[in-house]
Fold:
Amino acid sequence: MGNTDSALAAATIQIEAARAEKAKRPTIAGFFDEATFTISYVVHDPATNEAAIIDSVLDYESASGRTSHGSADRIVEYVTLNNLKVTWLIETHAHADHISAAPYLQEKLGGKLAIGKEIIRVQDVFGKLFNAGTDFERDGSQFDHLFADGETFKVGTLDGIALHVPGHTPADMAFIIGDAAFVGDTIFMPDFGTARADFPGGDARQLFQSIRRLLSLPEATRLFLCHDYKAPGRDDYAWETTVGQQRRENVHVKDGVTEDEFVKMRTTRDATLAMPNLIMPSVQVNIRGGRLPDPEDNGVSYIKIPVNAV
Ligand SMILES: [Fe+2]
Structure:
């Protein structure tokens, strides 16, 4: 990043242009999955109907090991109903709390499957943890595209730019399309705070720096979150906020909170959190681009659970 953050400067120019001209702003639909508190997004260009799907969810019943497609089919229905052409299937990171439905959606709707290029580090860490054999490539080749920090892309005529925002995992990315930033697991609603930073490869100090980087975008930037858990005293789920609101109100990282204060708070809080219910299936499948491990000779895929290793 350094002193001159050219990716951030480019993102700022893009957002200001989109604030000034409606045609440069996307239409956004959020789909909330109450089982995992995840929000998936369909983001499209009203001029061309080209669309990106961000962070989709495959339903998974851990007791029986059964997958199903209720959540993904709601997205298929929306895309079909609105005549959208899916060009991107984007993951903000390798999620630890739900399995991605990207391969299922790709088969139904098309689009290129993309994630941040640091996924290779996550594949390395979890490839070792799950003792995956040499048939599990740790080079990101399960994805169609790996985004680098500052890389630009298009959704129809809309401008997009990717920012590397590590901390929750080493590979987290935020994707800014027009004036809307899809920030993955960095910041949550102002009354809830921030994402945890204690998964393998996570780092609270890095997370703080990534969040402050996002919060130096223009105040009017719309932020769309990956999760909402409701905060005590709030009755409804919410997932849209702005840079300005976060800087004024975020209970963990509003303006004035120092890096050391944040790291102390985050580390203390993370020590009290249980692992997500679906961490083992999620990580194992998501590092493979959302595909189940290869079936064994009886045709069945298996999810492994490392015992006493995490
Ligand atoms: Fe996550």
Remarks:
- The longest strand covers residues 27-33.
- The mean pLDDT is 96.
- The chain has one domain: 21-286.
- The two ends are 31 Å apart (CA to CA).
